[in-house]
Amino acid sequence: MDLVGGCRAFVSVSELGSFTRGSAAAGIAQPVASRRIAALEQHLGERLFDRSTRRAHLTPFGRDMLPWARRMVRLADAMDHAAQRARLRPLRVAVPAFCTTRDLAELDAEARACELVLEFRPAEPGERLDLLHTNDVRAALTAVPSDEAHWTVPLGVGSAVNLRPGPVHLETLRIGRSAVMPRRRVWIQPEDDVPHIRDRLTRLRDSVGLRPSQVSVADSLTSAVGEVFGSADLLLCSAAQAGEFGLQWRPVAELRLTRGFDVAAEVGDDAERLRTLLWSGIARCLGGDADE
Length: 292
Hints:
Low-confidence stretches: none
């Protein structure tokens, strides 16, 4: 039986002295209140109300049980309140440092609609895992190869100067020894300083005959963009990032590079909620296609 529902109807009817008023105060129909109280009486093995009068008079047994029923209702209400607070306990998530404030705010709003409150910790790939292992966050968006990813984001190069239509061939960055123009570089931002991206790009660099310094890892995204703004250098980035910085974006001709992301969490339910409830919002934050 519904012990809490029976106690709630019992308390409400006893306090108002009427099945009609008591059921209305409890937000249930009178027949429902009567059935619940009858079930409670059967469960307890004794009558709670004297049915021989028009008013809802308690029996001696009913008077003895009323304080316990009130306690049961208070505990149930307290448990409901605690459960609501637990559901709304912030889920701290380590996210890529490149995620914009607007995208994170929109993701937060989507999460609240799902009764999930997020708290974000922007960090670079290695730091995100460290935050998870030290329990500073409950979940982390981790950088993984594209074949292991739940979210993928194609990469290309962005430029502050005009680029020809079509993919950029990195071999065109190679210049002869007699050239007086400075060598153009491709800057890798910290988010892409992971083996499945960095190593493939450096192997391409070597295969097309570029100098080692022509593919460099920047100390920060800000410094990488600054280098590109002040030169003809290229930034390895997503199309969304290029749009954010006002750069022209083109894919790389010789190599398909892709950021891959998954969720790591100490509790499996946290990861699954992020993957399912917020898939599109997370895709948008990462610069991917939220409609895939």
